[in-house]
Prior knowledge:
The structure is a homodimer.
Chain A: E1 5-10, H1 14-26, E2 30-36, H2 42-49, E3 53-57, H3 65-75, E4 80-85, H4 90-98, E5 103-106, H5 111-122, H6 130-140, H7 148-152, H8 155-165, H9 170-177, H10 181-195, H11 200-209
Parallel strand pairs in A: 1-2, 1-3, 3-4, 4-5
Chain A binds a DNA duplex through helix 8 and helix 10.
Amino acid sequence: MENKVRVLLYEDNRDLREGIAFLLQATPGIELAGAFPHVNNLKSELHAHMPDVILLDINMPGMSGLEALPIIKSLYPKTQVIMQTVFDDDERVFQAIRSGASGYLLKNTPPAEIVQAVFDVYRGGSPMTSSVARKVLQFFQQPPKTHPAGHLLSSREQDILKGLMKGYSYKLIADELHISIDTVRTHIRNVYDKLQVNSKTEAILKAMKEGWISNSGQ
Amino acid sequence: MENKVRVLLYEDNRDLREGIAFLLQATPGIELAGAFPHVNNLKSELHAHMPDVILLDINMPGMSGLEALPIIKSLYPKTQVIMQTVFDDDERVFQAIRSGASGYLLKNTPPAEIVQAVFDVYRGGSPMTSSVARKVLQFFQQPPKTHPAGHLLSSREQDILKGLMKGYSYKLIADELHISIDTVRTHIRNVYDKLQVNSKTEAILKAMKEGWISNSGQ
DNA sequence: CCGGCAATCACATAAAGGTGTGAGGGGGGC
DNA sequence: GCCCCCCTCACACCTTTATGTGATTGCCGG
Lengths: 218, 218
């Protein structure tokens, strides 16, 4: 291939840092531009080395990797960042993803796979530990959340609520369902009681939060 | 370990099927319950073998893997399904994820990793090819979509709109922003003009669709 | 300096929404 | 049969929204 992959490594544990650094240095196609125990000089290091890929530990003394990530991505959006950590709690994972991480490896990842991950992100992939991937997937899979309201709302009431969620007026809903506007009022009244709200807007927002979101109508 | 992992394999390519089947059979801890070239007898096979993990090819003659997946998950929600395909287009990937796939491997995955993936999903992970993982991550990251309205709405108008999206009444918004209710009216009037709507509800729905969703208030 | 726009406020009117009260018919369970 | 819930409708009354028509102030740029 053309150029080597320029890599920066941030890892506070000395043994780990030196171990990974050694491995990266020894790998053809990778150029280890630097290995540091903290991100306190992040900006100047970024500017000096212009890395393609950054291996970034989350837990470091001083500024954490999660704080450093958005800085990196705002300065050099094309730099690919692989997060490394011993923890895979939802909060960190999603914060990292939102901030633009391209990979997420737990610390128990074998060194050989770390090297593989570097090439992976460089080629446009997103290597991640399978437990992290599971968290991400679960986010998509319809939160089989228990519709707390699903049970209490009668089917007619659900019809009316769907009408509201499409932005319809009472009159429109009445026409669509072929009932009188007063009936619509009555249903809405009951829906409000059951949902514990007292306005159209609140009902819609609540319905959406609870997962009624079928907001594709029209 | 306790029991073996019971695996079903669906793959129409004979060589591939027999190759993977051989490997799975030879792996301690795995019990290959069956290997089939199509899913036409899916239900009876599921019932007969009660697999823990299913390796499911997407492109098969007759019913496709994407069609089979929701059936599997509705019948046996706890069964872990790993999708396999040569394609990684967004459409299929997300359809599979929404339908409950637990893993997604491209066909160029080395056999050894396929075996690893079986154990991975069984232990609650979600092995996926890094290119697939990238697609999934991008889904989270790109929301910085172009706010078509972001430009036309003045900052004060955005304040008011955010208030609406929190379900506030004019009066509440007025109080919160320390302005008169008539001023709120005026702003809302202008927002409606710019968004081409004519009710609170429409404005909120439109704002959400366009990505203003910061609906975390309160 | 002037025109344009953002932001503020006012007054007025009509339409839509929220709430109280009541009521009749149908179906299911006990 | 009686009770309860769902669905239907009606009328009344008040609040909130939507819209029309102005007006004042302040900032920015030509």
